[in-house]
Write a structure and sequence with these properties.
Layout lengths: L17 E5 L6 H13 L5 E3 L18 H13 L3 E4 L3 H9 L4 E4 L1 H4 L2 H10 L7 E4 L6 H13 L5 E5 L17 H9 L5 E3 L1 H5 L5 H10 L4 E5 L17 H10 L10 H41 L7 H18 L3 H31 L1
Parallel strand pairs: 1-2, 1-8, 2-3, 3-4, 4-5, 5-6, 6-7, 7-8
Bound molecules: phosphoenolpyruvate and manganese (II) ion.
The site of phosphoenolpyruvate (PEP) has 9 residues, from helix 4.
């Protein structure tokens, strides 16, 4: 992907995260202007947001004020000198927002899931030089997220960034949308110059979780934050539980610890290098031990095949789980971590044995 460095198109203070803030939805002129003026007064925010057309989960909810909201946000942008960003989901949204002089766009999670919609947006943006932020799709599919970024990039959008807003799931968790941090981390690994902005409002779904998620995002070297903010959050027409006042926004942003990306202290650098060498050696040992374990599994699989015994032996599996969990507890390892690790190893062991059975079956039938 051809990505322009964010510092070239979004001037932000050194060592500070990029912060996008504003209401979930534009509701009235007063609400947008009052909220945005108070946000700008914090001097910690780089871009003003407002939802104009709202993709709601259930019908008969507030679906946004539409076109008129663009004017209110534009007015707030002119009053504060901060650029504006809105969510667009189709060609008409883009045309209306461009007409009103909106500065940037974001693509919502419910749109990123649909390649037809993303392509329509990319086609509508052909030849337009505007920054676009792409939220992750609601389902945890990294390829779909990358695909949307690529469609826009292929249409000539080079001022591009990703927004991590978490993933929807059936299981109840403390989060509204599970963060699954490995997704933004992998995205950064594959595209090191792509800015990634975390949206703790939609991940958390409530005010209490905002600080902790924001700090975690910065500690994981995310480039910025998108936080929903409302002059009177309890009265908000959408996402009221997760919106905060501009006063609270200022508090949260002030309390964040921004750590150094690069290690300048030579003594610390040498110490970390030594510790990392230790980690390298330990990882090598872990992989060698796993290879040894799977070699034994191969032998067991062969015996089971010759003697026509089922691969899964539930009693043995229960015995493994309980003895290893006891050992893990004694060693001070996390219970959940050890269970997940054992399940992964067991899955691979079963796959190896299934391979042995099938391989020999092919040999005898051919
Ligand atoms: C929003 O930012 O208000 C929004 C609708 O977000 P998402 O697409 O992440 O649900
Ligand atoms: Mn919202």
């Amino acid at each position: 992907m051809n990505i322009e460095p964010i510092k070239d198109w979004l001037p932000v203070a050194k060592k500070k995260p990029i912060v996008v803030s504003g209401p979930c939805s534009a509701e009235s002129r007063e609400q947008v202007i009052e909220t945005c003026l108070a946000i700008a007064a914090t001097e910690k925010v780089s871009v003003l947001r407002a939802g104009i057309w709202k993709p709601r989960t259930r019908p008969n909810s507030f679906e946004g004020v539409g076109e008129v909201g663009l004017k209110w946000l534009k007015e707030a942008s002119e009053m504060t000198g901060l650029p504006s960003v809105v969510e667009v989901a189709n060609r008409q949204h883009i045309e209306l927002a461009l007409d009103q002089g909106i500065d940037m766009f974001w693509i919502g999670a419910r749109t990123t899931v649909n390649p037809f919609s993303v392509q329509e947006i990319a086609d509508a943006l052909h030849g337009v030089d505007i920054p676009v932020f792409v939220k992750n799709p609601i389902n945890p599919d990294l390829q779909l997220w990358i695909g949307a970024l690529e469609r826009l990039n292929n249409a000539g959008i080079t001022k591009i960034a990703a927004i991590h807003r978490g993933f929807s799931g059936f299981d109840q968790t403390v989060y509204r949308n599970a963060p699954k941090w490995n997704f933004p981390i992998e995205l950064k690994r594959q595209f090191p110059t792509l800015p990634v902005i975390c949206d703790p409002s939609h991940i958390g779904g409530n005010r209490e979780l905002l600080s902790i998620i924001s700090q975690k995002a910065l500690d994981l070297d995310m480039d910025g934050l998108m936080i929903e903010c409302h002059i009177s959050p309890d009265e908000a027409l959408s996402d009221s539980k997760q919106q905060i006042t501009p006063f609270r926004l200022n508090e949260i942003l002030s309390d964040l610890i921004v750590r150094d990306k690069t290690i300048k202290n030579v003594k610390l650098k040498t110490k970390l290098e030594k510790l990392r060498l230790e980690i390298d050696a330990i990882d090598q040992e872990i992989l060698e031990m796993l290879t040894a374990r799977f070699r034994v599994i191969n032998e067991i699989g062969e015996e089971k095949r010759i003697n026509a015994i089922t691969i899964l032996q539930v009693e043995r599996w229960n015995q493994i789980l309980s003895t290893r969990n006891d050992l893990a507890e004694k060693l001070g390892l996390g219970k959940e971590f050890v269970s997940t690790l054992l399940e992964t190893i067991h899955k691979e062991s079963i796959a190896i044995q299934t391979g042995i059975m099938n391989e020999k079956k092919v040999e005898t039938t051919s």
